[in-house]
Amino acid sequence: MPSTQPSLLVALTGGIASGKSAVAALFSKRGVAVLDTDQIARDVVEPGSPVLEQVAREFGAAILNESGELDRPRLRERVFNDSGAREALEAIMHPAIRAELARRTQLADGVYQIHVIPLLVETGRARDYDRVLVVDCPENVQIARLTERDDINEALANQMLNAQATREQRLASADDVIVNTGTLDDLDAFVETLHKNYSLLAERLAAS
Asked: Do 79 and 140 belong together in one domain?
């Protein structure tokens, strides 16, 4: 079982509804180890976990459902417009997520890895990676996808976009950009090119 860090770490980020999951899936299809911090965030608060106990102590048992699982919509509603509550939640979640990500990084296979980090720019973590890949699309496309995907109104979709880093801030951190405004075949072609480039770069780094 692998126990060393790969020679190339790529952070995959982008705004909400930009298409990060689709891009991650296409890398995964090519055998690349893809570690998703959103999934890790769900895993570290499984019932009975120390992190969930911390969250419940901070926000009260009301943020748990009848099965003892985290009630995500209720917690999201609690912290969305309360910066103090959001910071308290992040102080619990971020260290746990980073520790678990580091553990999985050591165990995963491959010469390079993709780490999906939606809040990469907001948390100042771009400098931790060899390459930053931004999935980009115009904000009006994000809003259209959000309203359809989450069945929400345009005002809430705009509010969700405004809670994140700006498009310009993400692009300023990018080494590579995928413009996701075309077809799935277009997206696949972008990923294939990047996969070849990342594989070659990783091999060169490993040999140096």
From this structure: no
